[in-house]
Design brief:
The complex is a heterodimer.
Chain A: E1 2-4, H1 31-44, E2 48-52, H2 62-71, E3 75-80, H3 87-96, E4 100-105, H4 110-117, H5 122-136, E5 140-146, H6 154-163, E6 168-173, H7 178-182, H8 184-187, H9 191-207, E7 213-217, E8 239-240, E9 246-247, H10 268-272, H11 275-278, H12 296-299, H13 304-311, H14 327-339
Parallel strand pairs in A: 1-2, 1-8, 2-3, 3-4, 4-5, 5-6, 6-7
Antiparallel strand pairs in A: 8-9
Chain B: E1 10-14, E2 19-24, E3 27-31, H1 33-39, H2 48-59, H3 63-79
Antiparallel strand pairs in B: 1-2, 2-3
Classes of the chains: A alpha/beta, B alpha+beta.
Chain lengths: 353, 87
C-alpha cells in the first residue's frame, strides 16, 4: 500500500507521478485517520507500507504517523527526497519503528539534480541527509528516476549508491503519468539511451552481485510488451491519496467514469471489493488481442491508464504491446522524440500547485 | 560463518494468509515450511553448521543432505541482501 501523506513537496520534479491537480493541505487526512487506515490495511493482509507524497517529511506529524503504522504491524518504508529530514527527525523516526528509507536521486551533481528537482541547494541537502541515514544504520535504497536529461549519468548514479552505502538502487525509467505525461517530449529517452541503460544495469548487476541489488524499470515505450502494471489491477496494490481517496494505482483518476471511495467514509476492506477496484480486476474486462493472448497472465494487458491516455479506451490493450492495434501511436511518439533535439530541459513544466 | 538477518529484514506471521513471510526493503517473500525452519534459526548467534545440525536432528534428515540446501538457500538470500553472511 502506498500512502500519499501529502502533495506538499519542496521539490518540483517535472516527472512527478502525482496528478496535475494537487490536493491542498487543508484536505489532507489527519494522523488519527491514517492510524485507523493502517490497522484496516494490516487486517486486509497488507504487508508493506510506503509512506510517500509529495514529500512525507512536509508533514510535521510524520513521526507519529510512522509509529501508528509500525504498531499496526506493517513494514514501513519512507519514500523521501531527504529535504526536511534532520538528525533529530531521523532519530524520532527510528524510535517510531521505521524499517527502511528510500531516498530519491535526481542527478549526480548540484547542476543537474537541482535543474531537475527545481530546488536550489536540494542536492547538497540530500547528500547530507544520506550521510545521516547511513550513520543511523537505516537500510537505504536509492531511487533514481531516469529520463532523457539524466540517463547518460546512470553509471555514476550506481557508483553513488555504493558510496552512500545503499543496499538497493531502483533504476526507474520514467513512466509517462501525471506530470511526466505533461513533460513527455522532454523526458522521453532516446533509443540509444534505452539500450545503454539495459546494458549498464546488466553490467552493474554482475559487478556488484551481493553488494548492491539493482532493480530496473525499463522505459516501456521502448519495450515490445507492456509492463505488468501494479501486478494486475486490484490484485496486490492500492494507493491512498492525501485526501483519503483510494485508488488501484497513482494515475487511476485519469480514467473517466471511475468513482473512488474515501477511507473517511468506508472501511478499506469494502473499498477493496468496491467498483473502482473491480473495474479491471481479473480478465473479464479484456478485449482482443488481450482476451485470448497467452501473455494475459503475465502482463494483465499492461497499464489501464496508458491505454486510456494513448488509445482513449481504458479497456484496450496497452499500446506499448507489439500486438496492440494502438502500437503505431507509441512508435510515432518515439520517432518524434528521436527527431527532436532536446536534452537540455528547455520548456519543462515543473510540478507546482 | 554466522548468518544474520540485517537491520530492516525480519520474519513476519501473516494471519490473513496464514503464512510465514520474510519482510525486507520492498520485498515480501512467502516462505514454505523448510525456508521458515531455516530462517527461524538465523538468530545472529548460531553458525551455519549449527543450524544444519539442528535441522538435521529436528527433521531426521542426514547432515550431508541438509547442508547443501541450507547453504544454497542462504547464499541466494545473501545475493538479494536479505541475509548477511560476512559475520
Amino acid at each position: 500500500m502506498l500512502a500519499e501523506l501529502t502533495h506538499r513537496c519542496p521539490l518540483a520534479c517535472p516527472y512527478c507521478s502525482n496528478p496535475l491537480e494537487l490536493t491542498a493541505r487543508e484536505r489532507e487526512l489527519d494522523a488519527a485517520t491514517w492510524a485507523r487506515v493502517f490497522r484496516e490495511a494490516a487486517a486486509l493482509g497488507v504487508l508493506q507500507l510506503h509512506l510517500s507524497g509529495g514529500e512525507p517529511a512536509s508533514r510535521r506529524d510524520l513521526e507519529g504517523i510512522t509509529a501508528s503504522a509500525a504498531e499496526a504491524g506493517l513494514y514501513t518504508n519512507l519514500i523521501t527526497s531527504g529535504v526536511g529530514l534532520t538528525e533529530r527527525r531521523l532519530r524520532a523516526l527510528e524510535a517510531a519503528g521505521l524499517d527502511h528509507v528510500q531516498l530519491s536521486l535526481q542527478g549526480v551533481n548540484p547542476q543537474s539534480a537541482d535543474l531537475i528537482g527545481g530546488y536550489a541547494g536540494g542536492f547538497e541537502r540530500k547528500m547530507e541527509v544520506a550521510q545521516l541515514i547511513a550513520a543511523q544504520g537505516f537500510p537505504l535504497t536509492l531511487n533514481a528516476v531516469m529520463h532523457r536529461l539524466n540517463l547518460d549519468d546512470l553509471p555514476r548514479m550506481i557508483e553513488m549508491a555504493v558510496e552512500l552505502g545503499a543496499r538497493r538502487i531502483e533504476v526507474a525509467c520514467v513512466q509517462m503519468h501525471g506530470w511526466a505525461a505533461r513533460n513527455r517530449a522532454a523526458l522521453m529517452p532516446t533509443r540509444a539511451q534505452a539500450e545503454g541503460a539495459k546494458a549498464e544495469v546488466a553490467r552493474a548487476r554482475a559487478a556488484l552481485k551481493g553488494r548492491l541489488v539493482v532493480d530496473f524499470v525499463p522505459p516501456d515505450y521502448h519495450s515490445d510488451y507492456p509492463k505488468a502494471c501494479m501486478g494486475g489491477w486490484g490484485s496486490t496494490g492500492l494507493v491512498v491519496a492525501p485526501d483519503g481517496r483510494v485508488m488501484p494505482c497513482h494515475a487511476a483518476e485519469t480514467i473517466p467514469g471511475l468513482v473512488f471511495q474515501n477511507v473517511a467514509e468506508a472501511p478499506l476492506a469494502d473499498i477493496w471489493r468496491g467498483p473502482a477496484f473491480s473495474a479491471f480486476r481479473g480478465e473479464d474486462w479484456m478485449q482482443e488481442p488481450c482476451r485470448s493472448c497467452d501473455r494475459r497472465g503475465l502482463d494483465f494487458g499492461g497499464c489501464r491508464c496508458q491505454a486510456m491516455a494513448l488509445a482513449g479506451d481504458p479497456a484496450a490493450a496497452d499500446p506499448v504491446c507489439r500486438k496492440a492495434p494502438g502500437r503505431g501511436l507509441v512508435d510515432a511518439l518515439l520517432s518524434a522524440s528521436e527527431a527532436s533535439v532536446g536534452g537540455d530541459g528547455a520548456g519543462l513544466a515543473y510540478r507546482r500547485f | 560463518m554466522i548468518p544474520k538477518l540485517p537491520r530492516g529484514v525480519r520474519l513476519h506471521r501473516c494471519k490473513v494468509r496464514e503464512a510465514e513471510v520474510l519482510l525486507g526493503p520492498e520485498r515480501a517473500l512467502m516462505l514454505d515450511p523448510i525456508a521458515h525452519a531455516i530462517l527461524s534459526r538465523v538468530d545472529g548467534a548460531a553458525s551455519e553448521a549449527e543450524i544444519v545440525a539442528d535441522l538435521s536432528e529436528t527433521f531426521g534428515a542426514p547432515v550431508e543432505q541438509v547442508r547443501p540446501d541450507v547453504s544454497a538457500f542462504l547464499a541466494d538470500l545473501a545475493e538479494k541482501r536479505l541475509v548477511n553472511l560476512d559475520g
